[in-house]
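User: Continuing from earlier, I have the next pair ready.

Assistant: Great, send them over.

User: Here they are, in order.

Assistant: Folding the first of the pair now:
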Amino acid sequence: MALRSLGARDFRCFVELELEFADSFNIVLGDNASGKTSLLEAIYFLGRGRSFREARRRVLVRHGCRATMVFGRVGADEGPGVALGLRLGEEGVQGRVSGQKAAGIGELAAWLPVQVIDPHVHRLLEGGPADRRRFMDWGVFHVEHAYLAAWRRYARALRQRNAILRRGGPDAGREARAWDAELGVSGAEVDRARAGFVERIGPHVEGIASRVLGRECQVRLAYRRGWPEEMTLDRALASHLQRDRERGHTVAGPHRAELDIRVEGRPAREWVSRGQGKVLSAALVLSEIRSAAEAGRGNGVLLVDDAGAELGPGYRARLWAVLDELPAQKFVTGVSLSEVRGGLAGGHGRMFHVEHGRVREVVE
């Protein structure tokens, strides 16, 4: 699903934006601190309801303003498309789809599946298990939209069980066990979907990583479910109940899952340099997009912000070659056209220049 147009009011450094995009490559040029990343951030916010570089949403509102609005239209070239909108103010985030109040950010995310590769993409590899769980969950959601409901049921039951364990008391064990059936059913759904996702993207990750690194590279992904393989989740919860009561939280379940990434049989973090870590992390993101397209979920939107940072010219050239073939709408930033020339393969796409919070389309 391509983002055909984007508008914004009082977002970051932008007073106002009104842009139309190509469904292939969109090149965004400008000096450092000109607002290139903020433009990508507006797209990300529309699809995710948050920033990819800041935990605090409030910083997205232009200084001195009380609220910001971002809106866009997604769809194929023919037809009116679907209108999306988000408002961020003192009351929080409010979304709309086709003029109607959105049920949640997930509704916008289903229409605008957006991923990002930025200078910090290596955190996917070097960060904690929670980063990789979010990566898996996003990938599953855009292939199996029913997954979100299962994940929410599991998260709710887990919160209730943990609250009981923290409170303690003589009846805590019995009350905690009352949530185990829901955790077992919804947790099994989450586990099945994640395991299938990891199996699907594994071959893509190895192929893309080897291609960009410029040599054969054995990359293996393994999904660690968060409780013993020989047990059902309900049984694992029962067997760990005493330990759960001592610790005040649930120690087994999909919330403890991990995506194990190995290169040549060794943990990836022990094998790769910073640049190689970026390549491998980027391969994970690109594989997620390719897998969703193969599953018939359409082409996603990929934001590439200063992807060449800390990559040698050989890595960069091979990365552009992979991006050229990726079934996605791409938005790529750079200081100069020479950095991103590969993104204009075949002469297709649009180019924009950002300066002092203003964006204009450039025609060569």
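And the other member of the pair:
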Amino acid sequence: MLRDKSLIPLSRQHQHALALCVGIERAVPIPQGDVKRWQAQVEQHFRSEIGIHFAAEEKLVFPAARRFEDLGPIVEELIAEHDALRGMFERASRRELTADELRDFAGRLSGHIRKEERVLFEGLQQMMSAEEMAALGAKLDEELKKAVQACAVHQKD
């Protein structure tokens, strides 16, 4: 199924995160000398995009999905995965992940993204009306725009 235009901004961010995962997976086995560089990339990606992405999903997408009984269980799984992934991002920011944990992180993040795309987003597109999708998309655009402006202001400080 084609992605509804309302969800395309999140899907684009998913593509960026998947590129990070592919980079890590291609680097395996990660030489010890490269571990800190990969952790810095993971940290930077979280600060510039994934943290904002998670917040937008939790504020707007997950509540919209919870309205549908069939999507409730997947939302709970995704929230638990957000929490686990945040922990891994925090460990990367403290440069505490090993090479094996970086590989595990890439697998977890890519699996999480695929679940959102294939199960959550597909489900939303099937269950929500065109008007509901458009309203969700407008809220997502506004939320992501605010977050980008906040990052720009923060970077100037």
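Worth noting for the second one:
Residues 152-157 have pLDDT under 50 and may be disordered. Helices lie at 8-27, 35-66, 72-93, 99-127, 130-156.
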